[in-house]
Amino acid sequence: xxxxxxxxxxxxxxxxxxxxxxxxxxxxxxxxxxxxxxxxxxxxxxxxxxxxxxxxxxxxxxxxxxxxxxxxxxxxxxxxxxxxxxxxxxxxxxxxxxxxxxxxxxxxxxxxxxxxxxxxxxxxxxxxxxxxxxxxxxxxxxxxxxxxxxxxxxxxxxxxxxxxxxxxxxxxxxxxxxxxxxxxxxxxxxxxxxxxxxxxxxxxxxxxxxxxxxxxxxxxxxxxxxxxxxxxxxxxxxxxxxxxxxxxxxxxxxxxxxxxxxx
Length: 263
What we know:
Elements: H1 31-54, H2 58-72, H3 78-98, H4 103-120, H5 125-141, H6 149-160, H7 171-184, H8 189-201, H9 205-225, H10 232-256
Helix pairs in contact: 1-2, 2-3, 2-4, 3-4, 4-5, 5-6, 6-7, 7-8, 8-9, 8-10
């Protein structure tokens, strides 16, 4: 099975913007920083493309698929996003033909399909079930891949996709997979942030409190574990989302205790 020596432990961290129905990464709204991350993603894409052209092996193909996912995240129009995503999809399909049990190939196929779905929009719902299948396959082959990335992506997909009969959205499945991701990789901030944001979405104040306490507890050590320029994009996003979640939690507390807060 091909291995992935990427800028993170096993594969690219997070599926913040690859999931069709999910909001774009917070860092994209921060123009200066977002431009820096876009330049880095483009450079990694071109480097990975050259590596594939030089030696088209499974490892390089998966690296290229990861780079396609990252670079497509910064596409300025749907045509550009679709073109980049289709390159990543093709790379993953080639690997799967050679190595059907490559968890990374199935994982990135799901991720790049998500980028394609974002580009197509009207035809996106037909892609969702293929994304579901690829993430489930990756989870079965390697549940620890990318800090429980397949479970994380499934949870977000079930959370943000429309529900039955339009699509596969399911609060029950979303909660189960997001909690499983947190169980498998409890020290990875993204997994706990997803629980915080999901409980906010579901108006579960007690759940938000528990998840936020867990996030605050792991934060100092995570800052030591995930260090350097390769993690800058993640930390910018995680930090902004943590602040936003805390503000929403405070608003909930104030609404529940108006007298205590001087109202």
